[in-house]
Write a structure and sequence with these properties.
The complex is a heterodimer. Chain A is an all-beta fold. The chains are: A mainly beta, B alpha/beta.
Amino acid sequence: MLKVSVVSPEATLFEGEATSVVAPAFDGEVGILLNHAPMITVLGQGTLRVEGATPARFTVSGGFVQVVDNQVRVVTEQASRA
Amino acid sequence: MAKGRELIGRIKTTENTRKITRTMEMVAASKMKRASDRVTAARPYAKALSEVISSLYNEDLAERFPLLRQLTSEKRAAVVLLTANRGLCGGFNANLIKEARHTVAELEARGVQVDLHVVGRKGIGYFRYVGRDMASQRTDITDKPTAADAASLVDTLMADFISGAIDAVYVVHSQFHSVLSAPPHTDRVLPVSAPARSGAGRDYLLYPSADAILTELLPSYVRNAVYRALVETAAAEQAARRTAMKSATDNAGDMLHLLRRTYNRARQANITQEIAEIVGGAAALQG
């Protein structure tokens, strides 16, 4: 399972496990599955989807995604649950 | 019993004042709880941001980013002072103002021209009183500061820094260590001093590139530093107010104790005197 956390300056919006994450990168969507290589990518504007036992959707704008050792960290200045 | 009346009046006013200070103490305690929760909630973001920046940072990059430009000499600097809009919080505002004056004096001694930006009515009031020009004044930041407040505060300064109009930005704020310890502190937010590298750097796939990521993240990092200063100052204000109001309530209690004792003593003395007079009068009649 991927460990996912979504953080904004004001709060941690999501913390939990997921089977996949689809994030709106600067040049289009990027899908992240288990055992993804370590990666940092800049986010654009769009919907972030966390799929798994507790699916969640967020509207994000700006920030970045960091993937390392099956931990996905979405760090964004503006995020809200959608 | 003229003295007794007067004492009753004083007892009543002290009781009323104690009611107010006790209420303020409880309000500040609950606000402080929420404010310190916000301080805690801001940590993961700050941690994530500084980890990524430190893993991407290297000396070659520093040359190319205006926000990282380290200066050999400062000519003009901006000092942002964060204070509260309200008083009745002990030495909180006074301490922050003192720290700001200290910082400004130190910079000016080095021949730096200082622009003073003041947030909060108390700081503005002070510098207006001493007749110092302020580059900007703001009172619209509430005790629940948002990331947007931080952005509006620092974005113009960041633009000035990039254009070279100012060479450094300092923020005077309170560090919220705990309820009892929230000392004033001056932080330099610009130029950015890259966070120390923690642990071995990983080889990340970087999209689009290290440069582009840093371009995106450095302003966020600066804004976040200011946001943290705002939330910590807000929490420290409530903590200071709670402490001040607690001691005010305690003092009112002590004072009431003393006043009541004085009142009872006067009352008793009065009764004793009346009895003595009656006994004396009766004795005179019998005599």
